[in-house]
Input
Amino acid sequence: MQMELMRPGQLRDALAKRSVVFIPIGAFEFHQEHLPFGLDALNAHGLTCLTAHRFGGAVLPPLYYGTGGSHKSYPWTIMMNDEVEIRGMLEQTLTRLQELGVKVAVIFSGHFAPEQLEMISSIAERWRQGANYMKVIDLAINMPLDSTPSPDHAGVFETTVLSRFEPLTIDLSQLPSIDKVPAIDPDGDSYGLHRHDPSHVLWGVFGEDPRKYQPAEAHALALKLSEAIELSVGSALAD
Output
């Protein structure tokens, strides 16, 4: 289902069964010492591939450039200053997919900074207002789910999702032992601005301490997210 690995006949066959193309996007961003820079795109790609495997459709290669958020100045983060470049690539992609006869395109973001979410929402809305027959839906990894870790940045949630798809990229030994160096958060606020302090043991992490993550929970969390994506895509196809 990965389009970069498919031959023309394989792609035609896949879309004849389910005319859906997923467009995973993320960012190239610091996620503390235990996680890779490409996490957002890796998670978006993993979830859309899982959904395509279960539901049908095909998945474009992930886009590793993103915009927005509060980590722009962190080490090795490469963030676009605005949406212009990314919007142009996504809109051209949608235009070509429609010309090629695709019925539904799904922009799925693993990076959920407000600026990025506003961008994909406005792209989808602008598309819907035009004279287009292909349906476009915009989704992100922070979609509401019951009984799951809260979406975060480099915390338990993102670490758990990534461990379903790229477990070898995670190395919690790069963080100090939670017993020896626990996270000190005023009023227990793991999303507070104090986490931007480089001296904090979880510098740049916003959310539950990733040292508490349980690998055994990865499959169930990824499946819940995939099922939520599938539900949205199924509704679009049924309309």
Observations:
- The chain has a mean pLDDT of 96.
